[in-house]
Amino acid sequence: MRIKYVIQLFVLAAPIFISACRPYQPTPIDALTEWPGKLDGADSALLESVQILKEEEVAGGLVILYSIPAKEPGEHVLVSTFVTPEGRGWRAQSSGWKDYSDSDDFVVSGIAGGNITDLTTVSGISNKGEVVRIEWSDGQIDLLPVEEGTFLFSRPETLTFRGIELLDRAGEALESREWDG
Description:
By secondary structure, this protein is an alpha+beta fold. The chain has helices at 2-20, 28-31, 44-48; strands spanning 51-58, 61-69, 75-86, 89-101, 106-112, 120-126, 131-136, 141-145, 150-155, 161-167, 173-178. Strand 5 (106-112) and strand 6 (120-126) form a beta hairpin.
């Protein structure tokens, strides 16, 4: 009977102990190297090739938009990762990514939900267009500028976007995407 109790206690306590043993990372960028960050287990060559595109403070943490090279020349992965300060450092909480190539004009990625928080992020890159128009599942519409070829916007709740349009200076739609995540 006592052995059964010890086994049950171990089974219940093991996940808590394991999560508490996750290392704290010294900086938000270092937190990208732990799961669910896309650089989990990455070698040093990949880490040196990360291009940070944009950062946004939201929900007590930081969303980092970055690009990493894929296996083929001219191919990349666009990643957004939500990291939070915890204890003596930073931890990755959620990530979303999308493969793209140098020839792509408009790439959209997103995160819906996370490990510890409700958070929805829409991010992307574009080599044309001035503004993106996001229509959310709750009916809210947000317009945000494309700055230096990138955009990043987060809401501290779990949603999806119905659609996103890339607009020119006159407000005309150049391209559009629907939620696929």
